[in-house]
Amino acid sequence: MRHAALLLLAVAAAGEEDPLAQSRARVRALEAEMEAVIAKVAPAVGAVTNYMALFDEKTGRVAVTPRSLGSGLVVTQDGYMLTNVHVVEGAGYLTVALPGGIYPARLHADTSQGAVKGDIALIKLGGDTRFPFVDWRVGESKNLEPGTFVLALGNPHGHALDGTPMATLGIISGNGRAASEAGFLYVDVIQTDAEINPGNSGGPLFDMAGHFLGINGLMSSRQGRSNSGVGFSIPVDQIRLFMKSLLKEGETTGYGFHGLVVDSTPDESGAKVLGVHGGSPADEAGLRPSDVITKVKGEAVKNRTDFVNAMDRLPEKTLVAITYRRGRNVKTAKFRLASFAEWQESVGRATPQGPLPVAERGFLGAEWNEEPTGVYLSRVVPGAAADRGKLLAGDILLRIEKTDVPTVKALVECLATLPSGAKVKVGYEREGKKRDAVLVLSTVAEAAGVGQ
Amino acid sequence: MNLRGLRGPLLLACLTATAPGGELAVAEGAVKRAAALARPAVVTVITADQKDVDLTGVVIAPSVVLTARSPLARDGKLPPSISIRLPGRGSTLEASLLDDDEKTDTALYKADSAAGVKALSPARAEDIHEGMWVLLVGNAFGQGRESTPTLSLGVVSAVSRERDQVLAFHASAPVNPGAIGAPVVDLTGDLVGIAANAVTDDGEQTVVVPYDAIRAAYLGKEGKGSKVVGRPPPPRPIASRIDDDLGKVLEDAAKRAARVLVAVRAMPLEGELEVIAGLPAQPKEGAHGQPPAESPPPARRVPGALRAYDRSSGLVVGEDGLILCPLRITGWPQASRPLVVDLVDGQSFPATVLGTDERLRVALLKIGLTGMKPLEPVPSEELRAGQLAIALGYPHLRPGQETPQLTFGIVSRTGALTDLHPAFDAIATDAAVSESNRGGPLVDVDGRLLGMILDVNDTNVQGYLTGARGAYAGNAGLGFAVPWSVIARILPRLKEGRALRNAFLGIATSETPQGLEVVDVTEKNSAGQPTGAMEAGITKGDLILAIDGKQVPATRDLKRAIASLSAGDKMTLHIRRGDKEMDVTVTLTDR
User: Fold this and answer.
1) How far from B88 is each of A308, B44, B116, B136, CA to CA, in Å?
2) Could you tell me what percentage of chain A is helix, strand and coil, using 3-state DSSP and rounding each to the nearest 5?
3) HSE (side-chain half, CA atoms, 13 Å) at B577
4) DSSP class of residue B507?
5) Most CB contacts within 10 A, which of A108, A140, A299, A443?
C-alpha cells in the first residue's frame, strides 16, 4: 500500500496542488486494509440454499424445491460449515455456493434440542475437495470492545448465490445482549450495526484482523424484515463450547438445563429465584425460591441479564458453581447442567413418537401405483435404496419389516416412521415369486435424484 | 438439478488472520475511545406509559440530564419528575424537571443521584462538517437498558444552518425506538447534539439537534436551564488523526460529486396538475410513530397530479449538456413528458430525451448548456469489495434550495447480480441509498465515479434487491449502482438517439449432461418479426456449448449472456448438431 500512497502523492505534485494529498493517502491505506480483510476471508463464506422436500404420497415421487436462503462459514478443511439452525432446519436437501462451485451439503448436528432452542448448526459439504476455511479454534469474542470495527459477510436476499459474498461494515454496538425470534433464544450475543438482512443468517462476523467473531442470525427492525442497524451475532466463544460435540458423528448437544426461573432484585444486587423446576439440577443442588444468586462461575451477577448471560449460554453437562444469598447466609452450590430431553423424560414429559418430518424420513427411492392386487413399483430412482436393493419397476411390494403394505396408505404410514439410513427388510413379488431384499433407506436428496 | 462443476482444490490453506495495524487500527482506536468516553454519560429515560420504548438522555452538567421533550409531554405538559437509569447502576432513580424548550424539542431534568457521572463536554459548532464521523449512543429497541447502551457509527450527512439543525446521516445509526434523545458525539467523545424525535422526510436520516442550538435556546430564555448549559468551548487543537482525514476526504469527495448531481423533473402534461405542496406526498411520522414535534402540513394532492416520485436525481455525463437519469422519469414507454433539469446552482433547463435503454432503465437527456464537467470514472479493474463509497442526493431533489446529503459505506460486492436480476454487473454498497439518491452518483474517496445509483423504483427489482416490500422502500444497507463501465458501453448508442430494447433470442432450453439442449424455437417476436434463432436456423435438439467464446453450462448463463446485450446486437453461438460442431451468428430482436 505504501506504493499506492507514494504514487498518489506524486500525481498530486505533478498536477495541481492537492491540500488533501496526505489525508487521501491515509484514507487509501485504510481502504486497502479493509479490502485485504474481505479478500482474505470471502473464499470461506458460502451461500446456503435450503431445498424443501416435496413428497407425493400417491405416486411416491420425491422432488426438491428451493425454500429459503442463508449463509455459512467453512471452518474446517474437509468442509464443515457453521450456519444457523433456522437456515437449514426442515431442509430436504442443502446446497452451498462457494467461489469454487456449488456443493451439496447435509445437516451434521445442531443445538436446537436443548433447554434453550439454540441457533448454531454444523453442516457438512460434499465434494471431494479441500476447502478454504477459517479455523473455528482461532478468534475470541470475550471482552470485545464496543466500537470495534466489524465486517459481516453473507448472502442477503440471495445476492451471493454465485459464491461471491456481500460485505457490510459496522461496529460492535454492544455485548451481552439477549434476543429471541421464532422460538430461538439468543443469549449473551454480540450486537452490531453492520447491515444484516434476510439471507445474512448463518453468515460470519469478522474483525479487521480477519478473526471470526460470531454467526449473524437475528435483527431488530422498525420496518418488517428490513435492517435498521441492530443485528445480533452468536459469539465465537459460545460456539466453541459446542463445537467438539457438534463435530462428533451421531452426538448432539443442546443448551444445558438448570431449572431456575429468576428476576432482577429491585436494587440489582443479584438475581432472585422465583421458581425451581422439580427434579432439575438446581432443585437437586438445593436452590429454593427467594434465594438471591450473586455469582455464576465466579462472575458477579447483578440482575437477570447477567444471570441469563452466564448460565443460558452453556452446553449441557457443564459443571457450574453458583453463589447465592439465603437470608443472611451466603452459600454455594455446584451442579452439572442437565440434558433437557433427559430431564423431560425423567419427569414423564417425553413427547410421543409420531411420523417423522418429510426431511428426515427414509425413502425407497421408487415411485408406485396402487392396483387392486397391491402396490406396484412404477419407477426406480437410479442409485437410491430400491435400485441398490435390485428392485425393479413392476415389482409388487408386500411387506416392510413385519408390516403388510397392501395399499399405498399402509405403505406411506409405515415408511413415515423410518428415518433415512435405516436398514429394512422388504418383501416383494416378482413374476409370481416372493422375494426379500434388505434396503438402506434413502435420504430425500437420493430419492429426488440429486444427492451425493 | 445442475450442480455447476464441483471444481477441484482452490485455496488449500486455512485463511489465517493477521494482526490489525495501520490506519484502520488508528481509526478503530478513535471510535473505541470516543465510545468509552461517551457511554458512562448515557442515561435511560423511562417513560411512564411506554415501558418498553424508553428514551435516551445524556448528562451534560453535574446532575443534569438532557433528553427529548415531545415523547415525554402529555397534553403539551412535561411531567415534573421522571425515572432514569444510569449505566452500571441497577435501580431506577428519580429526576425532576429543571427547564424545557419547545423550539429545540428538549428538556432538562435534575438528578442528584447522577452527581458522580462525568458530563460530556460539548463540541464546537464550527467543527461540525459533512463527512465527519459521529457515534450515536442510545438504547435502540431497549437493548442496553440493563447493561450498556448501543453504539452506532455514522457520518454527518448534511449541515443545514437555516433550520438551526444539523442533519446527521447514519448509514448504520438510524434513530430506532428507544434512541430518541440519544447523544451524538464526535470521535473525541464531545457532544455534537442529540437525536431528535423526527427523521428526515425520506425516513432514512436521523435528525440531530446540535448542542450549540440547544445551548443558545436555553441561554436566550434565561431560565434555570441557562445556568447549566455552559459556554461555547474554546477551539480544539487541530488534530491529524485518520478520522479527521476521513472526514475531510469524504467532504471533498462529496463536493466533487455534487458538481455532477442534478435533479430531473417531469412536467405535467395537459390535464395533469402538479403536486401543490412540497415533497414528500406521504405524511410524516415521528420515529416513535407519533407525530413529530413540528409537523409540516402533508402535501395536498389533486386528481391526476404527478406523483411525488416523478422526480429523480440525474448525473452529468458529457460536457455538452448530457445528463443520464432513470428511465421512468421520461414517462417511458409512453410518450415523453416535458422534462426539466435543475442544476446545483439553482438554474433550470428544459431537457430533451436523446436515447433510452430498457435494460439499464436509463435515459440520456440533453440540455442547452455546455462546459459541464463529468466525473473521472474509476477504472473497472480498480473496483474492489471493501473500498469506500459515497452516495449523494438532495433530500427533496431541489438543488439550489438545499445542500446535498452524503451517505457513506463500503462497496459490498462487485460482479453480476445473481439469477434474481441477471441483467448486468452491479456494484453493491452498504451506504444508505434512498429515493433521493436514485440516478445520482456513487463515488470513491477521490470523488471519482463508481457508478450511477440504480433506480429500483419502477419495477419489482426493488423487492428482489433489498427485500423491501409494500410501501416501505427505504434503506436496508443494500444499495446498488450500475458501474460506469456498463454505462460507457451503451452511451455512444444513446448519443446516436437509439432506443435500446431488451434482447430476445427465441429459444427454450433444457440443461442436460451434454450441454444446453434447445427444446423449442419461437418463430416470431411480439412485433411479428422472425426471431434471431429462427433466422439463423437454430433447431430443436441443437446443443448450445458456448456463446461468444464463453461456455454456457446452465440456463442462467445463457440468460445472462442475452441480458448483457440489447436488441439489434449480434451473438455467436457455438453449437453441436448431430456429430457436427459449428458457429452460428444470431442477430437478437426485441421480445
Assistant:
1) 17, 11, 12, 19
2) 20, 40, 40
3) 12
4) E
5) A443
Which amino acid makes up residue B312?
S
Lowest mean pLDDT of A193-207, B215-229, B306-320, B352-366, name the range: B306-320
Query: DSSP code of B535?
Result: H
Cell of A255: 443448551
Cα–Cα distance, B53 to B68 (Å, whole number)? 13
| Other Cβ atoms closer than 10 A to B527 | 8
User: Is residue A236 within 8 angstroms of chain B, CB to CB?
Assistant: no
Q: How far is A209 from chain B (nearest CA, A)?
A: 5
Q: Hey, are the CB atoms on B3 and A101 less than 8 Å from each other?
A: yes
Report phi then psi at A162, rounded to 5.
-95, 5
Contact A88, A115 (CB under 8 A): no
A420 is catalytic: no
DSSP line for A73-115: EE-STT-EEEEEHHHHTT-SEEEEEETTEEEEEEEEEESTTSS
Q: Which residues pair with B363 in a beta bridge?
A: B325, B356
Alpha-carbon Rg of chain B, whole angstroms?
A: 28
CB < 8 Å from B in window 310-349 of A:
none
pTM of the model: 0.84
The tens digit of pLDDT for each residue in B439-466 reads 999 999 999 999 999 865 433 444 444 4
Instruction: Note if the bond before A281 is cis, omega within 30 degrees.
Output: no
Give the residue carrying C-alpha cell 451439496. A104
**Using the beta-carbon criterion (under 8 Å), do B17 and A208 form an inter-chain contact?**
no
Kindly provide the ipTM of the predicted complex, given to two decimals. 0.81
> How far is A152 from A215, CA to CA, in rounded Å?
9
Are the CB atoms for B173 and B185 separated by under 8 Å? no
Cα–Cα distance measured from residue B286 to residue B259, given in angstroms and rounded to the nearest whole number: 33
DSSP string, A219-278: EE-SBTTB--SEEEEEEHHHHHHHHHHHHSTT----B-B--EEEEE-TT-SSEEEEEE-T
